[in-house]
Amino acid sequence: MGNSASTWLIIVLAVLAANLPFLNERCFAIIGLQRFAFLKSIFFWKSVSSSAVDLTGAAPGGDDDHVNATPVVTDDLPVRNIPVYAEVPQLNAVQVKSLWVRLLELIILYFCVGGIAAVLESSAGNRFPQGWEFYAINACLFLVLAFPGFVYRYLKRNHG
User: Fold this and answer.
1) I need a surface site. Which of 96, 117, 146, 156 has the fewest CB within 10 A?
2) pTM across the whole model
C-alpha cells in the first residue's frame, strides 16, 4: 500500500472510530451492554423501554410512582374498580450508554487507530520517533473528528 493510500485509510478510520461511540448503543458496535450488567452501577447507563407506558414517563393514571406498570382491574376492590398497577417485565428494553461509557470507548478507539497508524508507518519504512506533543495534537484532532457524532447524539437528535 502506498503512502497516500495508507494516509487516507488512517483518516477514514479516524473519522469512523471517532463517531462510532455516539452513533449506536453497543460497545464498539458489536458488544451489547447486557454483557456488562455488573458495571451498570459504575457507568450509570439506563434502560429505556419502547412500550407506551414508558415513553410518556408516567403511568396512565398520572401517578409517577408506577412508571413500568399497566393497569390491572380486580374484582375484590370497591364497585368503582380502581386500577391497581402491577409490575410488567420490559420486553423491548434498550440499554442506553451514558456519556462516561462513550468517552471510555472513544479513548480506546483512539489508541486502536493510533496502533493501526503505527503499523502502517512502520511497514512503509522507518518509524519516526514521536514526542508527547504529537500525541496531544492527535488526541485533540480525534476529539474534533468526534464532534459531529456528539452533536447528533446530544444536541440535534429529538429525545422526545
Assistant:
1) 156
2) 0.63
